[in-house]
């Protein structure tokens, strides 16, 4: 049994965390499997969208606390192991945003600590009603410092801080209200709704979406003036794309574009 399952449908790559007995914890093995897929997807032009889901009753319960406890047994008390663990986890989270393909989290059950971080690190998220989200480490004395990086870039600062210092869950409706997820759907339609969103995105011009995703994150780190200068150059390059020319022509002529990619 693979700890991370993959199947591709209609240019959509589905990655399913497959350790339900551990609530799909981000163990060393799970992080390694995710990193392998991120590396492979970087150059996979057959895939236009990536969906991440979880097997069993939960999306992801965060880091594997049993492994972390074992890591403490090292001579340095686990310092080297923990530093490496959080670096590897950060590489996966940043890798998802650096993928050329948009990434959608398909969340159900619970998404806690680094599991909530995983949802926040995806470009979009669809959640089933009843899903709970939390950065609950503070409840066991471990402040969710790395998960808060992604969380505080998804939802308003005061609400992120409240979640971090209280360790309380928010439900799916509140997560949608705050901007952590894009939409909330019935559990029985979660997979179909997520696939529909993925296929809608996959139907767009691939080169434009790849360019746009990269520019989206780059400009977000700039001043407004620098962002306009940068994105202006991005749009110039986009306009010079032959497929963009075809798309504009097709729109004006009221026909379906004949894109090469």
Helix proportion:
40-55%
State mean pLDDT (0 to 100 scale): 96
DSSP strand count: 9
Q: Name the CATH homologous superfamily of the largest domain.
A: 2-enoyl-CoA Hydratase, Chain A, domain 1
Strand content: 5-15%
Instruction: Identify low-pLDDT runs.
Output: none
Instruction: State the CATH class of the largest domain.
Output: Alpha Beta
Q: What's the number of helices?
A: 11
Question: For the largest beta sheet, what order do the strands appear in spatially?
Answer: 1-2-3-4-6-9
From the structure above, extract its key features.
261 residues, alpha/beta, 2-enoyl-CoA Hydratase, Chain A, domain 1, Lyase 2-enoyl-coa Hydratase, Chain  A, domain 2, 2 domains, six-stranded mixed beta sheet, three-stranded mixed beta sheet, 11 helices, 9 strands
């Amino acid at each position: 049994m693979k700890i991370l399952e993959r199947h591709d449908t209609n240019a959509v790559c589905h990655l399913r965390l497959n350790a339900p007995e551990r609530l799909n914890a981000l163990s060393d093995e799970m992080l390694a499997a995710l990193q392998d897929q991120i590396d492979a997807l970087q150059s996979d032009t057959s895939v236009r969208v990536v969906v991440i889901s979880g097997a069993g009753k939960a999306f992801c319960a965060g880091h594997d606390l049993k492994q972390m406890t074992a890591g403490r047994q090292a001579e340095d008390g686990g310092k080297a192991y923990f530093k490496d663990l959080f670096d590897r986890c950060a590489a996966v989270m940043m890798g998802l945003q650096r993928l050329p393909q948009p990434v959608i989290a398909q969340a159900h059950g619970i998404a806690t600590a680094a599991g909530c971080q995983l949802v926040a690190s995806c470009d979009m998220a669809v959640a089933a009603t009843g899903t709970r989200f939390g950065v609950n480490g503070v409840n066991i004395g471990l402040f969710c410092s790395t998960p808060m990086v992604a969380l505080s870039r998804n939802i308003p600062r005061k609400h992120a801080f409240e979640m971090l210092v209280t360790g309380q869950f928010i439900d799916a409706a509140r997560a949608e209200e705050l901007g952590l997820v894009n939409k909330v759907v019935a559990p029985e339609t979660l997979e179909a709704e997520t696939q529909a969103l993925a296929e809608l995105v996959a139907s767009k011009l691939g080169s434009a979406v790849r360019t746009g995703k990269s520019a989206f994150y780059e400009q977000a780190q700039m001043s407004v003036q620098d962002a306009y200068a940068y994105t202006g150059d991005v749009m110039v390059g986009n306009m010079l794309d032959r497929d963009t020319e075809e798309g504009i022509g097709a729109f004006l002529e009221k026909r379906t574009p004949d894109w090469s990619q």
